[in-house]
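pinging the channel bc i need a second pair of eyes. not urgent but kinda urgent?? the chain im working w is below, pasted from the shared doc
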Amino acid sequence: MGTILKGMSRIRWHELTHAYGSAKDVPGRLSRVAWGDAQTSAVALSDLGLWLGELAVFDATVAAVPFLWDLAVTDSVATRPGVIELLQAILEHGSLQIEVQHTAHQAVLSGSSTVDLLTSDKDPAVGAAARGLAAAIDSHACQACRTA
């Protein structure tokens, strides 16, 4: 692996879960998003969306968010707008475990300065997705984050 996704191999993915069970396949999907062509990247990102954030957030979501931020700022990633939209979905969804929800949301919120930079990205689709995420960050007030 290159400089993006650095440290991904240190995560014990097999001990984490996502919407459909073990998160052992998450690193492979992140890698496909990072280095795949547009179609490969889109399919992998779709899997990650289903697994990590479209239904609810999980402990694997928390581990994946820093790598999603890496992908969002890497120009060579074919699906950057989708990565940013996944970060927004993570921020907007809950969890049965309030601490997991809070930690996942905080991981997304920690990238607020990064999303500010992305709003003026040279790719209009990236800028649009980043503006959507920036608005979600600005208005974020879920119960898990208010009580923590």
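so The beta strands are 17-18, 21-22. and Residues 12-147 form one domain. — does that match what u expected or am i reading it wrong
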